[in-house]
Design goal:
heterodimer; A: mainly alpha; 3-stranded antiparallel sheet; two-stranded antiparallel sheet; 11 helices; 8% strand; elongated; B: 425 residues; mainly alpha; 9 helices
Chain lengths: 454, 425
């Protein structure tokens, strides 16, 4: 059964209509789908940032990741490899609303292309909490789950995760307007070249630079410091939760499955009994049913675990936004410090005093004072540098402020989304537990009836 | 103790072995008395002494009318006309310089003439129950004697003074006495009477020993190693049934233990799992705090309910299984004894046949053997039917109990989860 990871919704100005389930395939869940002007691919060469109607792509296009297939091919090192591709289907919403059912446009993408898309978005929209991809490798696995990337269950759960990823982006007021994203959905061949041509990789901040900034920044915005702590806590607590949950699932599986042995022994025992035989035999069947019921229970729970995992990875995205802020703030601080030091040097030069220990002071002691001409020249250079520096500080400050402003809008949006999604997930988890109890009561009541007929 | 008064058989009477119906085709519920009541006059001629000459304990008076009454009384299993009620309760610890031990209060209510008073309340310890059982086995070798709970605590982990252990033992001792009290023959045993009524059991035990040495009753029922020619079908079937049944019980015991173990490990994980939601709640604001605390609460109530389930199964389910395994072991011994008695008879019969020169009466000791065989078979058959019936009730109750405990576990979890999460059921 196909399912969506969560009801992807937009929290801003636009509303979402939910269409009927598609007739074409079996059991597909509702897609979030909205009104549309037609957007012909040829028109769109640059960012679609200027549509101006404030709506997201989700309003115009129905998107789904409907299938997965295995492929083999030669990789960059000319070696044979097997990989999975996913089918992306898109359809115009207006056409659907008008009662037509046009065939969807389709193309195939593999996981690495999704990664490329995300990396591009991370660099290009560093102030946005970019939705995460489903995990690359299966983690938090309990014994019955396979850690093999080729395992059909893993592939299926990944398909759902990738679809969710696309829906999250297309529901985002900023990200959905990105041209690269649009081409990802519509242009199968040569898309990679287009992405590389944007030169986004050059714009990426080096890890080292970012780490350096984290340690040395002096005055990050308080809100970001708090956000950083929160995202660290969130990551830690969800990891812990998922690890223990996997162990809990393992144990629960064991408890249920051992009961299946009762089925067999009751059946054997009933063979030597006269009056007790029937009751025992049918009770045994119920024990078998009980043992089998755990498979469905744990499959549903896996779905819940996937919802938590999304937010585990989201915490990394949050952290990335904080890091970018630290970096910008640090650069601002460095620039400002540099300006201060240059101004100081100017003062020293102008007044001839050497207030602080400096190389200038040393050399003037050793080699004698400079000539007035030399001094003039140096002052001039310094003045230029200072003017430049002041401009630099101004623009850096502006950049910082803008960054704080823009990112905070998205952070607020993210917080709302997170609270809503997780609340739903937790409540449905509680409902799952209740349903598990009800099933247990049913089975044991049936068994009890059989026992009383013994 | 009246020795030498022959006791009549309450059920199968003088049916020959071949007429006794298949052990697995017992009737539901009440044992029907044999249509052929033993002739009063022929009772006196039966010598039911053991092959080695020691008389079998036949303590119950045997006039035919009271016998008839007793037949009907004893066969009424729903207890409306039962005249002997026994319970075991009130365990207490006794500390002396030599040792520490537990005693249990044994309460008796009865209208039987064999007892001097209508009510008794005495204190007994496990040793005393063990003594009683040994005495019953000695003096009623043709009957199935109910088992006692295990004497020694094998696992060093179990504290023999812990509440759970004492309670489990008390229930088993109570069951033991009730089974004897419900038995039409065993309940009239003198040792049983003394066990229930004597203030000072230890002096009786010593006295009994003296008597025994006089009577030679302490000589265990041992027959020479005769080879059995042909085991009658129904007794062979009993043996086979017991062999298979004990295997199945062993399997069920292992499964139950495994489930308890898995549940215990599940519980350990749950105990770590729940609190994580709480520490998460600390990091979040209001909107998420409630649902997080809700899930934590649901996990914690599941844990508590699970702990109760596991304890109950340990205390109530496993001991009964083990009791039955012990029961079956002693039953198989009785079957072996029966085989021995029959073998001895066959051997003596054959020897006599060889010796016979003219047609003369069958020698008395061969006749004695034949009687012994027939009585043994009849007693055993009756006890077997009774045992099958009780077994069925016991296991029905046991398994219903298991189902109930599981239902309660899920009910508790369900209700508490709904409460914590304010979700509709």
């Amino acid at each position: 059964m196909r399912r969506r990871l969560s009801q992807v919704q937009q929290t801003h100005d636009t509303t979402i209509y939910v269409s009927e389930p598609r007739m074409a395939d079996s059991g597909s869940e509702e897609a979030a789908v909205i009104e549309n002007p037609e957007v012909a691919p040829e028109e769109v060469q640059q960012d679609i940032g200027g549509t101006g109607d404030g709506s997201s792509l989700l309003k115009k296009m129905e998107i789904s990741v409907s299938e997965a297939e295995k492929r083999t091919g030669k990789n960059t090192m000319n070696m044979q490899e097997t990989y999975t591709v996913y089918l992306i289907e898109t359809r115009s919403v207006e056409a659907l609303n008008e009662g037509q059912s046009p065939a969807p446009d389709t193309l195939w993408r593999r996981y690495s292309e999704f990664e490329l898309l995300r990396n591009y978005l991370l660099v290009t929209y560093s102030y946005i909490v970019v939705p995460p991809l489903p995990e690359k490798r299966a983690e938090f696995v309990w014994h019955k789950l396979s850690a093999d990337n080729m395992d059909p269950d893993f592939v299926e759960r990944r398909r759902i995760g990738l679809e969710n990823f696309l829906l999250r982006i297309s529901a985002h007021s900023v990200l959905s307007k990105d041209n690269i994203f649009y081409l990802f959905l519509t242009q199968e061949n040569g898309w990679k070249d287009v992405v590389y041509d944007t030169g986004f990789q050059a714009k990426a901040d080096s890890r080292l630079k970012a780490l350096n900034a984290t340690f040395r920044v002096k005055n990050p915005e308080k809100r970001f410091t708090e956000l950083k702590h929160y995202s660290d806590e969130l990551q830690s607590v969800i990891s812990h939760l998922l690890r223990v949950r996997a162990r809990v699932a393992d144990r629960l599986y064991g408890v249920y499955k051992v009961h299946g042995n009762y089925g067999r022994v009751f059946s054997e025992w009933s063979a030597i009994e006269k009056e007790m035989g029937d009751g025992l035999q049918s009770a045994g069947h119920h024990m078998d049913a009980y043992a089998a019921s755990v498979d469905d229970i744990l499959e549903e729970e896996e779905h819940y675990a996937d919802q938590l995992k999304e937010y585990l990875f989201y915490s990394e995205a949050l952290r990335a936004v904080c890091r970018k802020h630290e970096l910008l703030q640090y650069e601002l601080e460095v620039t400002a410090l540099d300006l201060v030091s240059k101004k100081q040097q100017r003062e020293e030069l102008a007044t001839g005093t050497v207030r602080t220990f400096s190389l200038k002071g040393m050399t003037s002691k050793l080699f004698g004072q400079e000539t007035p001409e030399q001094r003039e020249a140096k002052l001039k250079v310094l003045e230029e540098q200072i003017t430049e520096g002041e401009e630099f500080v101004k623009s850096k400050t502006l950049e910082c402020e803008e960054y704080v402003q823009n990112s905070w809008i998205d952070i607020e949006r993210f917080k709302e989304q997170k609270n809503q999604d997780l609340k739903e997930a937790l409540i449905s988890y509680a409902v799952m537990q209740i349903s598990m109890c009800k099933k247990g009561i049913q089975v044991w009541t049936n068994a009890k009836e059989c026992f009383s007929k013994m | 103790m009246s020795v030498g008064t022959p006791k009549s058989l309450p059920t199968s009477g003088q049916k020959s072995i071949n007429d006794i119906s298949h052990p697995l085709s017992y009737e539901e519920g009440v044992l029907t008395p044999s249509p052929e009541l033993p002739n009063t006059s022929s009772i006196g001629e039966k010598d039911l002494s053991l092959p080695n000459g020691t008389p079998v304990d036949t303590s119950s008076p045997a006039s035919s009318s009271s016998l008839l009454n007793r037949l009907q009384l004893d066969d009424d299993l729903d207890g409306e006309t039962r005249d002997l009620f026994v319970t075991v309760d009130d365990p207490k610890k006794h500390v002396s310089t030599m040792e520490t031990y537990i005693t249990y209060r044994v309460n008796t209510k009865t209208t039987r003439a064999e007892f001097d008073l209508p009510e008794y309340s005495v204190r007994r310890r496990y040793q005393d129950f063990d003594w009683l059982r040994n005495k019953l086995e000695e003096t009623q070798p043709t009957h199935l004697i109910p088992p006692l709970p295990e004497k020694f605590v094998v696992k060093g982990v179990v504290d023999r003074f812990s509440e759970e252990f004492v309670e489990t033992r008390r229930k088993a001792l109570d069951k033991f006495l009730k089974r004897i009290a419900d038995h039409p023959v065993l309940s009239f045993n003198d040792h049983f009477n003394v066990f229930l009524s004597a203030k000072d059991l230890s002096s009786y035990k010593k006295q009994g020993l003296a008597l025994l040495s006089k009577m030679g009753e302490s000589v265990k029922y041992v027959t020479g190693g005769y080879k059995l020619r042909c085991r009658p079908v129904e007794f062979a079937a009993m043996g086979e049934y017991l062999d298979t049944f004990v295997l199945k019980l062993g399997t069920i015991d292992r499964i139950a233990q495994r489930i308890i173990k898995e549940q215990a490990e599940y519980l350990v994980e749950l105990r770590e799992y729940g609190p994580i939601y709480l520490s998460w709640a600390n990091a979040e604001d209001d909107e998420l705090q409630k649902p997080l605390e809700g899930v934590a609460g649901c996990v914690s109530s599941c844990s508590t309910a699970l702990e109760e389930l596991t304890e109950d199964m340990s205390e109530d389910f496993l001991p009964v299984l083990r009791e039955y395994v012990l029961y079956i072991e002693s039953m198989k011994n009785v079957l072996k004894k029966r085989d021995q008695v029959q073998a001895e008879y066959e051997a003596k019969l054959e020897a006599a046949a060889l010796k016979r020169e003219e047609r003369q009466a069958v020698p008395t000791d061969v006749e004695k053997c034949q009687d012994r065989v027939e009585c043994f078979n009849a007693d055993l058959k009756a006890d077997w039917d009774r045992w099958q019936n009780n077994k069925r009730q016991d296991f029905r109750q046991l398994l219903i109990g298991m189902a109930d405990k599981n239902i309660q576990y899920y009910e508790k979890s369900k209700i508490l989860t709904a409460k914590e999460n304010v979700t509709p059921l």
